[in-house]
Design brief:
Elements: H1 2-50, H2 53-77, H3 81-116, H4 124-136, H5 138-153, H6 157-179, H7 185-209, H8 224-233, H9 235-259, H10 261-297, H11 301-328, H12 330-335, H13 343-356, H14 360-375, H15 379-405, H16 407-456
Helix pairs in contact: 1-4, 1-6, 1-7, 1-10, 2-3, 2-5, 2-8, 2-9, 2-10, 3-4, 3-5, 3-8, 4-7, 5-6, 5-7, 6-7, 9-10, 9-15, 10-11, 10-13, 10-14, 11-14, 13-16, 14-15, 14-16, 15-16
Length: 457
Amino acid sequence: MEKRMGNRDFSKYITLSVLGMLGSSGTILADTFFIANKLGADGLAALNLSVSVFGLINGLGMMLGIGGAARYAICKSKGENQEADRTFTLALLTAVFCGVVLNICGTLFSGPMVRLLGADSHIFPMCQSYLRTVLCFAPFFILNHFFIAFLRNDGSPKLAMTAMLMGSLCNIVLDYLLIYPMDMGMFGAAFATGCAPVIGLLTSSIHILTRKNQFHPVKTKISWKEIRKFSGLGISAFINEFSSGFVLVVLNLLILHMTGTVGVAAYGIIANLALIALAVFTGISQGIQPLISRAYGQDDRRLLQNLYQKGLWTASVIGVLFFGIAWIWTGNLVSVFNSERDMTLQIIAENGLRIYFSGFLLVGGSFVTTAFFSATEKAKEAFVTSFFRGFAGILMTAVLSAFLWGLTGVWISFGITEGITVLICWFLMRRKRVVYIKTQRIDLRRIILRKLKSRWI
């Protein structure tokens, strides 16, 4: 009976989290679809340069939300309710502060930021309009991710999914209205996207208004030590999100140098399709986190191992599925975003999509293992794997591969990085298990020696 309940919880949390993440990623995909069909390759290139800012915004929201919620769940499992509420309060105050800072940066420095992203004079106005508008909504984006993570850890994964889906649905409807009938261009797309987290927050507030929440703000002093502690548990989520935006900028610059704007537009198609696939893996890792943190707080090692293995199997099967879809329906997927029927764009994107998506055969192992490290307070291991995957590994591989094989090297760098990351994850997990086995052997030896001594004496 206990095993059946465990399977039911796993399926429930994973399914709801994946559906929610798919809905959330739909906000950018909707922008991509409508802008590509209304503004063509220039609009698509402008969006692909501007959208990298979401890596920073979503990364901060997930770091504070997932890290704070993981710490909250562990404290709750141990019966430390006051400490759990204190963690919630500190994480909430930090999230508000970060959102306000990004809002101010967008208002004052959007121009220099767009130049830094590599936009030329032709697409500069579109980039600046999108970037400035999105950053004005930064507090809402961060708080939306924050409360969704806490809802999931507070026993309301269904409401967390609903909040994400409602925001995405609102974005799609507003995208159509503002870009087509009202002809508001890039500003309309950005404004529609900014409304999504507002709707998400209103939906999440039901949990508090109905008084189902177990987390409450309390009076507490600002403790940078505590903030660093729970932020460390969410650092892998931050790196995964922020690095996607950072890598997007680097790869855009590499591709811009090799093939010009049409190459950037092709990468925009690939990146947005990859965003949907990554949302599924993120959903798996976020869905499994509350269950792992709870089992860790209760010191249930058997359940921890069971959850980890289920997560790996689920992610591996989905990786094979995405790889198959990318190879079978390549042309159809690319043509959805190629309204102008540009043959050069079509050929570049098709070749890139097939090669790039081969990396998804390995993504699941790194995502689930990193989530396991974060949920069990192994911040150092989580940082190592996510930093290599998101920054050091992909940058070194992309630059070296581009130098050796040109544009094909850019596409293949994703798969190479994921392969090396899986090896790093395997090494860290193996080292952890070896230490545990050795400890058991030492304890067993001591027990045998004590029994022998007691007999002879």
